Amino acid sequence: MRTLWLSLFLSAALGAIPNQSSAGETRAAQILDRFEHANQWRDHVMIAAHRAGSMQAGKTLYAENSLAAVEGSIAIGAEIVEVDVRRAKDGEFVIMHDSWLDRTTTCKGEVVNYTLAELKKCRLVIEGTGAVTNETVSTLREMLLTTRDRILINLDNKLDVTDLPGMVAEARDLGMADQVIVKENLWNRHRIDAASAALARAGGSFQFMPILADDSVHDAAFADEVDKAFAPHAIELI
User: Fold this and answer.
1) Per-residue model confidence as pLDDT tens digits over 156-178
2) Whole-model pTM?
3) Structural domain boundaries, residue 104
4) What is the SS3 assignment for 80-113?
5) Model pLDDT, residue 87
6) What's the number of domains the chain is made of?
7) What is the CATH number of the domain that holds 117?
């Protein structure tokens, strides 16, 4: 179900009216307005690309979480790209969904056991076809630079909740914290408190998207508790 969340949830929850943006406003700013003011944009379906949008029209065209996939998503008019963030052995934030490299790259083993320099020798593979691309594992900074002012970027934290401030700091250093949506799994009050503390350390201006999974959250009232804690513009439901 995770591969469907963006197309199903955001398409149903977010809408838009014809664009009346001011001259000089970036495309990312226009998209952010639609994201933050969904009720004012009721005739528009907001499209988001999962794992950067490697699959289009039922076919896998790009390596997942790749810069090429981002470019393809922007080209077809997507408004959000979702990517997954991990750390290399030397602490660098990198873009990779799995904890292991085997499925999506030419390398083997766990991401955390490779330095960034070693990861840069791994080529991304297009799943299903096995085609090896010329693209290597991207850093978070490289991914942010590719999306800046062009599309919103949704960071799925595959690390500890305490790593969220570091991700936001990278975006803020590039002057694009407001173009970032970070997300985190929540399942109890302790987790809400941990996320709240991490987001407070990260500072403001970015968006937070909680993740609620039905295998962890069994009480519908918990969604109200999350809403009161964060007042998010969107929630991922699994």
Assistant:
1) 999 999 999 999 999 999 999 99
2) 0.89
3) 2-237
4) EEEEEEEECCCCCEEECCCCECCCCECCCCEHHH
5) 98
6) 1
7) 3.20.20.190
